[in-house]
Amino acid sequence: TKPFYTCKYDKAFKEIMMKEENFEILKKVLESILEVTIEKIELQPLHIPTGNIHLKGKEVDLLVVTDKGKIEVEVNTYYNDYVRVRNFSYITNIYNNQITVGDKYSEDTNVIQINLNYGIPDTKYRRIYKVRDEEGKEYIKNFYIYEINMEKLKKIWYDKNELEIEKNKYLLMLDMEISDLKKLSKDQVVREYMEKIEKLNEDPIFINWITKEKDEQMIKNTQLYRATQEGINYEKIKISKTLLNKNMSVEDIMDIKGLKKEEIENCKR
């Protein structure tokens, strides 16, 4: 069976959510996360200048201005240690740009980042971060980071928690196959989303684009893994040479460093 690409992939997310005809879908997703009612949405350029001519600008997944503030969305399909650092640099840059466009420093406009994370090690499916001290006193009032653990959220669906499913249906739909989407399709917005994502998966241009990108990403991941492993082995061998020079036995080094006997024997050369 051919793969079905959901909005777990940032390309699919952007392809649907960045079209004005689909703003009602985007609005419902944002409202579900922020627990507010949004009246208007306006797309912003994805490229964020760094303010430093020596550094490249950053491109975010989605950036909109609403009556509830400036909202940036990041879809993190593969979570890694650097994700929070990278995303924090994005939102602080946006915050800086927001503050410096006016003629005074102001907290009038909320600046919000939403991270839709897959593979994050967390027990909660929703966290909200603010700038506060150890007693909970706010340092600034208009800066928020929402982190959604999309895989933890799925437990609501598998547990058949009807109340939570209804509350989170617009988030849940983002990574659902058609068979599950049909179970929620009494809702008009879910039905519209289902039609859009199904149509997108039948678009040969999109499929060719996303599969090519996925293949390139897998190659990059493989190369990075190999480079990392080579780096780890290099350090092990380097330490093994030192231990051999201190007359430690080959067997002891094998136990400590996890290297093969021939790898350690080569260190003698």
Explain the overall architecture.
By secondary structure, the chain is α/β, with parallel strands linked by helices. Helices cover 51% and strands 14% of the residues. The strands form 2 sheets. The chain has a 6-stranded mixed beta sheet with strand order 1-4-5-6-8-7, with helices on both faces. A two-stranded antiparallel ribbon has the order 2-3. Strand 4 (62-66) and strand 5 (69-76) form a beta hairpin. The model has no long low-confidence stretch (mean pLDDT 84).
What is the fold's blueprint, element by element?
Blueprint lengths: L9 H8 L5 H12 L6 E3 L3 E2 L9 E2 L2 E5 L2 E8 L5 H19 L10 E7 L8 E4 L13 E7 H9 L3 H11 L5 H6 L4 H14 L2 H42 L4 H8 L3 H7 L2
Beta strand %: 5-15%
- Low-pLDDT sequence parts: none
Helix percentage range: 40-55%
* Integer average pLDDT: 84
- Any idea what the shape is? globular
- Total helical segments: 10
SS-based class: alpha/beta
Give me the count of strands.
8
SSE series:
HHEEEEEHEEEHHHHHHH
CA-to-CA gap between the ends?
A: 53 Å
Q: Using the CA coordinates, give the radius of gyration.
A: 24 Å
Outline the biggest β-sheet: 6 strands, mixed
Record the strand order, biggest sheet: 1-4-5-6-8-7
